[in-house]
Write a structure and sequence with these properties.
This protein has eight helices and seven strands. By secondary structure, the chain is α/β, with parallel strands linked by helices. The protein has a seven-stranded mixed beta sheet with strand order 3-2-1-4-5-7-6, sandwiched between helices.
């Protein structure tokens, strides 16, 4: 049974990305996801757990036909409005039971989705099912061992949505779920949650300090 953890924050969800730190981190994460996903104009790509459509819109603007899968009504309503002039088709569906045919897309991407599902193995299986042979799936997750995950756990303890329901993943978790070596899981965002500008320097300082990356991205070719 689907429980909408994001309904209470849907109207304010995108505000963080408009702040300097949020915008900086969004650029780092998007760059890494795009590098592994390698989207091509004319492809059909499923954005699983598309939220308010931020990433779906970026894909559509480079000529990708996007299938945006989002079960949260309030989040999906925002996404439909913000992508109405783009090639984005919205589907009311959960990640565990996607309303798409077998072998119907060239690739599937899920960004910060596995943290909020009960059965991540089923999500991976569904992503593999909908992707055509020789396609790819890409996962972006919040690193369980990072300072950012510690912050989100604290917010969860304060009952601030959606964090009470988040289950974070490590490199090893993602490697196991995808059936790849954990060393192939890439990472970015090493700066601390309380970082101040210049953010590039703060991120480099985080690397020197040995901070775990806050965001992990991995790719699996579908045979």
């Amino acid at each position: 049974m689907f429980e909408d953890y994001f309904a209470p924050i849907a109207s304010k969800y995108d505000q963080w990305y408009q702040e300097p730190l949020g915008n900086y981190i969004d650029q780092l994460e998007t760059t890494l996801v795009m590098a592994l996903l390698a989207p091509q104009a004319g492809e059909t790509i499923a954005d699983v757990g598309a939220g308010t459509g931020r990433f779906a819109a970026q894909l559509a603007r480079i000529g990708v036909n996007v299938v945006a899968i989002e079960p949260s009504g309030p989040m999906r309503d925002i996404g439909v409005r913000t992508t109405r002039d783009l090639s984005v088709r919205w589907i009311n569906s959960t990640a565990e039971h996607m309303a798409l045919a077998d072998n119907s897309v060239d690739a599937a991407v899920a960004i910060t989705v596995l943290e909020f599902v009960s059965y991540p193995e089923i999500v991976i299986s569904e992503m593999k099912r909908i992707v055509r042979p020789h396609g790819r799936i890409v996962l972006g997750v919040l690193n369980a061992l990072s300072p950012w995950a510690a912050l989100y756990r604290y917010l969860g303890d304060l009952d601030i949505p959606p964090w009470p329901h988040a289950k974070f993943k490590s490199r090893e978790d993602i490697g196991r779920l995808l059936g790849i070596e954990s060393e192939k899981v890439k990472g970015c965002v090493h700066l601390a949650p309380d970082a101040r500008p210049p953010f590039d320097e703060a991120d480099k300082a985080g690397v020197r300090a040995g901070n775990q990356p806050a965001f992990l991205v991995a790719k699996k070719e579908v045979t």
